[in-house]
């Protein structure tokens, strides 16, 4: 056997020497630097097949080690001269918010990248967060990557299931296998919500997508004061016991430490840092000193209409819009002008804007610290920095009057301005609020364009400011580039810059082609005005859609404003929408609809949209939002109605936890309490801004429903529990037809009343009724916990986290009795929906 093995090795060595293919690759496709087989040898791989097939053993093996020659595998490194990459993207920042693109909010870090490199003025997103992020890290359109919408509204169609398939490798995976140190800091909204638990699978967490280190949060947003934070796949709570701790700073500290470590441990190894902070997605959580700094600047005292005019003038001075660009009209049918507001409204809205602006300025400042770390490492000249200002347009998800609690707004509950002033004005931006600004500011921060985040048909939803610097390569300092490009173009740009090819196979799976085009041609000053290489691009989000082709743009007219999150638009997405047409060569801002005068051109583009949509998995079109939020997905809870726990188990995310909204349920806890009657959490879900908790407080059983931090309904036993075993039961009866009716009639489906009893050892100790229940969603950056509470309390007056139970939880059972919709009810509700749609047309 030994002789046979040695003979085979000899044959392999002979084949390599003769230039025969090894594992599908030419022998000369892999360039070894240094002495082959030595400990310091490196190899630049072909890169088309990942992971790289192992190179053949080049030493000799005999029976005795003293007669043999060792041969170490060469360490994989990128092509010579490949740059470090720092890819930055902020969240929910409209084109007109930062100073770099004409805004009044100071963003010196973004200014620095633009002034040392290039500003891009026709760069586009998808109009929504995780779809943009999926496109950014894969180089494919968002539907191609499975992210036609966010995971929380995903459906069982290939373009909408929020699963980045194995045939769609990320830039992290490509660069990792080519020798880069890869890391991800901040927001991860590309792990499916139904795969985000500690049970895994983890292949669609950052580590499974090619990012060797992750520090951040999973989901659309999180509190910056008390976040649901992870290091790799482990939940961490570094803020506990640290008043004033803020994730925006902590994340920068983490990235700075990581860059410093890489530079000191292996200064020759290039890094790819994907840095995506939560700013400025709600909740707007800057530190108090930043709020004071911005407030003292009086940026917003004249209101949102005057702000638009000021920004528009700034943009023309900077040259980030053409001199002949037109300001799009104010949406009088939806939003009040500043002059007609009351003094109380103006006072509250200015406060909202100051906190938002402070959050953006604060976020940019911390990004500046990360950029400084690259300078301190002496690596700035050969670092390609891409700084994208926002993953979509400015967010309208705070309602026309803003909200102290975004969770309330997502449940279609508005908090009147009078109550905002009375209860939340001073706390706005602190850990006691989960705030979002009024839509008037949102529209202004998208100047000069129409519409906002979620609206893919208009540039207010999709046009992002972007700056790129690479001091050792880009010499046109402060140049402006106006070629039409899209977020899918970043991956091919990075691949061209690093000299690494897009793989044709990863882990044996053939890869979808990269769908973007490289922007690297714009780095040269000679190409400042070169024609764009991105000729055609479709847009679609929640039924709103557009198509760009060779300077022309056709798009639908939105039929419902995106801040009406509970609206049920006409489901005939194909025929219910009007189309518009623009010649972008003459009309930069989509101001003059010329569809009536150019029917043939409009038809040409509409047909092209159908072709592109079919190619990239856009069908079926779906304009629903709230109904998709409550759709069951293939999580660990799918099809289950009974759940059993014991002891302590914390950190189950919302997408993998029992859903207790719009349903009857019963929680049974078999406990053993100590001599003092017990203290601590039995079961909780959600937190300060919406959730519920079942616990023992000073020996007495308590159940609290926190209704969006606006009201709390409380059940409590009057008598202290005696030491020993007890059975505690909370039994809630829901008076409604459940989520199944949401698309038909909200009044009979969700948010309906409920009555409940609290029992001890079979005896009812309290009964309460809720006139309204939370209709759609609990606080999403909180978790489902047994035996302790992570994140924030459901009632700050009762306890502080973790509030671990000091007795024994022998068994906790959750039994769900979901409403069943009869055929007669379904028919009645369907008829009502049809009448409603007819009357609204």
| Rounded Rg | 29 Å
According to CATH, the fold-level topology of the largest domain is Alkaline Phosphatase, subunit A
How many domains, as an integer? Answer: 4
What's the N-to-C terminus distance?
82 Å
User: What is the average per-residue confidence, as pLDDT, rounded to a whole number?
Assistant: 92
Q: Count of helical segments?
A: 17
Task: Specify the helix fraction band.
Answer: 10-25%
User: Given the C-alpha coordinates, what overall shape results?
Assistant: globular
Report the CATH architecture of the largest domain: 3-Layer(aba) Sandwich
Q: Can you say what the CATH homologous superfamily of the largest domain is? A: Alkaline Phosphatase, subunit A
According to DSSP, the number of beta strands is 33
Name the poorly predicted regions: 1-28, 743-747, 833-841
Quaternary form: single chain
The largest sheet, given as strand count, sense and whether it forms a barrel, is: 11 strands, mixed
Proportion of strand residues: 15-25%
């Amino acid at each position: 056997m030994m002789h046979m093995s040695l003979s085979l090795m000899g044959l392999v060595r002979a084949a390599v020497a003769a230039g025969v293919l090894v594992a599908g690759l030419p022998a000369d496709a892999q360039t070894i630097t240094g002495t082959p087989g030595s400990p310091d040898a490196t190899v630049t791989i072909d890169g088309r097949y990942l992971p790289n097939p192992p190179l053949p053993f080049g030493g000799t093996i005999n029976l005795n080690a003293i007669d043999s020659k060792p041969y170490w595998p060469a360490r994989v490194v990128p092509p010579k001269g490949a740059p470090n990459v720092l890819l930055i993207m902020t969240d929910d920042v409209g084109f007109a918010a930062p100073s770099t693109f004409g805004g009044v909010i100071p963003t010196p870090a973004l200014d620095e990248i633009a002034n040392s490199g290039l500003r891009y003025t026709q760069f586009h997103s998808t109009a929504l967060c995780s779809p943009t992020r999926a496109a950014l890290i894969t180089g494919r359109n968002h539907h191609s990557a499975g992210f036609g919408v966010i995971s929380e509204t995903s459906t069982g169609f290939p373009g909408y299931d929020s699963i980045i398939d194995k045939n769609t490798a990320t830039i992290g995976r490509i660069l990792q296998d080519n020798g880069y140190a890869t890391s991800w800091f901040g927001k991860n909204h590309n792990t499916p919500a139904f795969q985000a638990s500690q049970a895994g699978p983890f292949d669609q967490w950052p580590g499974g997508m090619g990012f060797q280190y992750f520090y951040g949060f999973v989901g659309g947003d999180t509190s910056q004061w008390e976040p649901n934070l992870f290091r790799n796949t482990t939940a961490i709570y570094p803020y506990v016991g640290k008043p004033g701790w803020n994730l925006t700073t902590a994340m920068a500290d983490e990235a700075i430490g990581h860059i410093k470590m890489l530079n000191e441990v292996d200064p020759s190894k290039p890094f790819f840092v994907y840095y995506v902070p939560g700013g400025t997605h709600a909740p707007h959580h800057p530190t108090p000193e930043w709020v004071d700094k911005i407030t003292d600047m009086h940026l917003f005292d004249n209101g949102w209409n005057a702000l638009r005019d000021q920004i528009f003038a700034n943009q023309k001075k900077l040259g980030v819009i053409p001199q002949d660009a037109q300001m799009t009209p104010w949406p009088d049918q939806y939003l009040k002008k500043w002059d007609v507001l009351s003094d109380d409204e103006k006072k509250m809205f200015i406060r909202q804007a100051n906190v938002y602006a402070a959050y953006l300025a604060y976020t940019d400042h911390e990004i500046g610290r990360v950029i400084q770390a690259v300078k301190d490492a002496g690596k700035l000249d050969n670092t390609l920095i891409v700084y994208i200002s926002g993953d979509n347009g400015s967010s309208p998800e705070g309602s026309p009057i803003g909200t102290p609690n975004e969770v309330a707004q997502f449940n279609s509950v508005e908090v009147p301005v009078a109550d905002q002033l009375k209860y939340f004005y001073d706390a706005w931006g602190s850990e006691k609020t989960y705030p979002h600004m009024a839509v008037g500011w949102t529209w202004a921060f998208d100047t000069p364009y129409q519409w906002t985040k979620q609206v893919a048909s208009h540039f207010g939803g999709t046009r992002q400011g972007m700056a790129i610097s690479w001091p050792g390569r880009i010499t046109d300092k402060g140049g402006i580039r106006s070629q039409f490009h899209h977020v899918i173009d970043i991956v091919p740009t990075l691949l061209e810059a690093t000299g690494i090819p897009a793989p044709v196979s990863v882990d044996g799976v053939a890869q979808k082609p990269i769908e973007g085009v490289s922007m690297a041609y714009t780095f040269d000053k000679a190409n400042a005005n070169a024609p764009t290489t991105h000729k055609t691009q479709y847009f679609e989000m929640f039924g709103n859609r557009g198509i760009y082709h060779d300077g022309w743009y056709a798009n639908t007219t939105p039929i419902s404003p995106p801040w009406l999150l509970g609206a049920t638009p006409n489901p005939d997405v194909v025929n219910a929408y009007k189309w518009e047409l623009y010649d972008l060569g003459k009309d930069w801002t989509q101001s003059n609809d010329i569809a009536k005068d150019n029917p043939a051109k409009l038809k040409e583009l509409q047909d092209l949209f159908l072709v592109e949509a079919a190619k990239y998995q856009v069908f079926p079109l779906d304009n629903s939002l709230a109904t998709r939020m409550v759709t069951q997905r293939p999580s660990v809870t799918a099809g289950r109605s009974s759940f059993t726990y014991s002891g302590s188990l914390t950190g189950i995310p919302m997408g993998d936890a029992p859903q207790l909204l719009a349903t009857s349920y019963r929680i049974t806890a078999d406990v053993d309490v100590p001599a003092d009657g017990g203290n601590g959490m039995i079961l909780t879900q959600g937190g300060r801004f919406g959730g519920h908790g079942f616990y023992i407080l000073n020996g007495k059983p308590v159940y609290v429903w926190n209704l969006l931090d606006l009201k709390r309904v409380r059940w409590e036993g009057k008598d202290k529990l005696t030491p020993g075993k007890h059975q505690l039961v909370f039994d809630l009866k829901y008076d409604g037809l459940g989520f199944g009716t949401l698309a038909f009639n909200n009044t009979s489906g969700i948010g309906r009343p409920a009555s409940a009893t609290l029992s001890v050892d079979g005896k009812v100790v309290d009964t309460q009724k809720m006139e309204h229940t939370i209709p759609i969603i609990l606080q999403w950056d909180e978790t489902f916990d047994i035996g302790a509470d992570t994140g924030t309390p459901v009632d700050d007056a009762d306890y502080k986290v973790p509030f671990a139970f000091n007795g024994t939880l022998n068994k906790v059972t959750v039994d769900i009795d979901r409403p069943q919709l009869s055929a007669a009810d379904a028919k009645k509700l369907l008829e009502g929906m049809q009448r409603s749609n007819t009357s609204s047309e």
